[in-house]
Amino acid sequence: MGLFAAIRRVGRIAEPAPPRPESSAAPTLVRGSLQLRHVDAGSCNGCEIELGGCFSPVYDAERYGARLVASPRHADGLLVTGVVTRNMAQALRDTVEATPQPRVVIAVGDCARNCGEFAGGYGVLGPVSDVVAVDAEVPGCQPTPTEIIHVLRQVTGR
Amino acid sequence: MSGPVLAAVLAAVTVLACLAVLAAPSRALPSVAGAGAGVVGAVGVVYGVAAISGGLAPVSVGWLVPLAGLRLAADATSGLFMVVTGAVGVVVGIYTAGYAAHGHMGRTPLSVLPLFLACMLGVPLADSVTTFLFLWELMALSSLLLVLAEARRREVRDAGVWCAAMTHLGFVAVLVGLVVFAAAAGAEGFPELSASAASLSPATRSAVFLLTVAGFGSKAGLVPLHAWLPRAHPEAPGPVSALMSAAMVNLGIYGILRVDVTLLGPGPRWWGLALLAAGAVTAVYGVLQAAVATDLKRLLAYSTSENMGLICVALGTAMLLTASGIPAVAAVAMTAALVHLVGHAAFKSLGFLAAGAVAAATGLRDLDAFGGLAPRMPTTTAAFGIAALGASGLPLGCGFVGEWLLLQSLVHALPAGGTMVALVMPLTVGVVALTTGLGTAAMVKAFGVGFLARPRSAEAERASEVGRAMAVGMGLAALACGVLAVAPAVLAPALSRVLPELPAGAGTPQPRLGALLRLPGVGGSMSPALLALGVAAGVLLAFGATQWRARRRPAPRTAELWACGGGALTARMQYTATSFAEPLQRVFDGVLRPDVELAVTHYSQAPYLVAKVTYRSRLRDTVETSLYTPVIRAVAAAARIARRAHMGSIHAYLAYGAAGLIVALLVAR
Question: Is residue A4 in a domain?
Fold first, then answer.
């Protein structure tokens, strides 16, 4: 009974849902929920920590119909974090290619948008939009879970 | 036709076939050999059908076998075994015509093939101890010659030694058992033995039972006397392994059925229990070894051992239930044994023929080196698929009906049989369920790893489909599998005549194998044909639904297979037979005792970095290593001691002769 007792003791810890965002920046492509595959193209792992927070019980992005999956074959979209390094460029292209269409590519964080702190580094190829087509962007270094979820809600439309 | 005529035709056809193969020009050798074996098989089928129909007079030829004469008689039981053997012979004959054309079998083995087939047809006909033993030994010797067809290879010679030693130890056990039986009964004809069996002392009867079950069990591959089977069957050429695994092992069951169940029986309850226990151990051990085997033919050979175990479980159940006074359920168990025997002959001959075809096309037997055969050898793949379905005991496979009947008999025996039956039956249900589950895993492995996905070796990549004769042979066996799986009613006329001859089936209502399988007295029914129809309808429905849905799907595009971002897929990323069986090997670690070596080499400058990992896992037959090695060592030690007496001096040998004579005279005084 330890598990049930813990559930009762903790109770509901998710933050109250902010109002639904107005217009959507990205095309609403999915009819049901949005299944996302995360690709780390060369991140400092700051965005990863925030992404982890997004799907934690506190922010609970799954309330808004976004969910992480383990393979691009299962996904409707990709969350790409970090600058695109030379070693990850082909893998990123392959992953986008492996995601079934219609698909949405979301660049998370300043590095993914414009190389941020790492611009000009010897192993850096460029921002995500140089390598694959990007549909939505989350600014910030690193973006807070609230900011990430804001964009995700624009994409899911919930 | 009458009995003598049929017997004479069989003998004449055999001699002619052997001579024709010996005399045929090299170019026509494959066709002649195939035709010879096929005709002998066809005669066997005709003889068997005539025997099942009944009314064949016994044949007695006084001058043929010294001192005792040759006595043949055919009842429905013999007929059933002859039809099975003959049918396998026909299929193997057609297949051999193609197989031998590849030059895999020389003239000597090909000329022995009809003789081997005729001996297997003759064993069920034997009606006296001498005739039986004579034909049994002739069969064993001819099978040995066939196993040694490729004697240039060392493994084949090893297998030949094992086969010869085990076969002859089994023969000695049968010989002593039958001689004790005949001496106690004062006659050597089977009818006389049957008449006087009840008047023998219980000790004699039990001794005869144990000796003959051990002897016949070694032929049928019962654990722990199975050691020769997974060595000899894989090393023989394809058609020969099919004959041995689908027909010869059956004769071990025939021996138990004839001598222990019919002539000696009905016996005390522990006979049934002993047979049941031996069968259960064999079934589980055989299927476990099959599940972890990586050699395709070795896997099939262990599966043979497993199925013979299941048949022995059914026979033991029938004996136990007869002795416990539940004849209606005993009849179901006996039917299960016979149906499974026929089904096993069908799917195992097909399996070995397909394995032989793969071996002929690639020159390999190692599953780890196969893969990707489905597009290269579609006919063989389909044939092996049908055989694997049969061997896994699932519906639509021809092993299903027998296993279903066996489970029915085990389940329905519960309430009426007393403590012993109530204890044994649930355990046996567990054994059968475990066997079926592991059997499915083994067959999924053999088919999936061996035939699907991508080729893992250059040989598999170069494989091409076999010729027409081999395809026709496999096609016939596949047809038999299909018919037995969907319409076991074809066996009904034969079984309705065989069952009354056996103690378990006499005087009770028999299971009715119609379109709907009905078991009178136990209240169970099942229809394989309806099941097949249901599955076919379900598949059609699913196919139609996906086609209908596909209209609204976007156009397909060609893309690289997803390999987790790691580049293109290669054959090295696939499951191999070893990796597929690894979880099972881990679970059954205590039984299988794999010989695992793991060596990790680190860089000397950077001890956290691994330079090389070497892993080697070798599976030996545990029973063989723990039981036979000490025996072989003891025999070798005794031989070393005995060798001291053989110093090569003629004087010493003369002295031995004289001493022996004096001792013999003193003893026989």
Answer: no
